[in-house]
Amino acid sequence: MPELPEVETIRVGLENALVGQKFVDITVLLPKMFIGSTEAVTGSKIIGVSRRGKLLIVTTDGAYSLLIHLKMTGQLLLASLLGKHGLPDKSTKVIFTLASGDRLFFNDVRTFGYIRVHETKLLAQFPFLQKIGIEPFDPQFTAEYLVKLIHKSSRLSIKTFLLDQTKIAGLGNIYTDEALFLAKILPTRSAGSLSSLEIERLHSSIIEVMEKGVRLGGSSRTNYITLAGTKGDFLSEAHVYQREDLPCTVCGNLIHKVQFAGRGTHFCPYCQK
DNA sequence: TGCCCCCTGCAG
DNA sequence: CTGCAGGGGGCA
Hints:
This protein is α+β, with helices and mostly antiparallel strands. It has seven helices and eleven strands. The strands form three sheets. The protein has a five-stranded mixed β-sheet with strand order 2-9-5-4-3, covered by helices on one side. A four-stranded antiparallel β-sheet has the order 1-7-8-6. Strands 10-11 form a two-stranded antiparallel sheet. The radius of gyration is 20 Å and the shape is globular. The relative contact order is 0.15.
């Protein structure tokens, strides 16, 4: 479900809620979603919550830590922030009880997500972390960096390129479509066909769209919600995503939607070249 | 480097 | 009822 801005919003919430706390109990309701032994982290104190791309990393002071991927429909919800809303429900797959008595629920309707126990000192060797690309907010992610990256994958469509987590981390379908709109580039263009001016525009558009996403607390199409069960506001400001047949905010012509690169793909056929 | 798949719910 | 959904691993 979530892309970088959503995962970052959740990360900040988790950091505030979990750091300094201990897991006193972990109840797994669907075994395939919790990989490893719950006992390996029960009793450990949480010392940090970080993020790489769309992957959350909950580090403990013990030998084992947790990697959490929400994939399409995963949610993390904190009982103390939820109010009266009754959880667990049928999509709840893992329940963490903290020393404070608060509970953290891992819900996932489609069950694509996972929580994985991993040796703390070997976290960097987790395969996904080994091959993941640069963070959009990394100062080293410059227009020149993007030029070189694109040069190595010139035959891919620019949309496929942006969705590839081993190149740039954290972009998913929504933010890819939005970044390409801001950069005035058609998603179907081959990466290698972009001019240096277009790559510069794309570089700043990626950062702009990610910053805006984080600032607005992410986007909520259907499943994404914060730890408190509230929705993000980004989608109300989207230019193309989920705006098929609505007027382009810039030129007034209708936004098109096609299937491309295996995804619903939104664009303005007039603004984007 | 594309395509299928994991799975469930909901809109059309 | 079919098709589609914001991800990514594994396969040819």
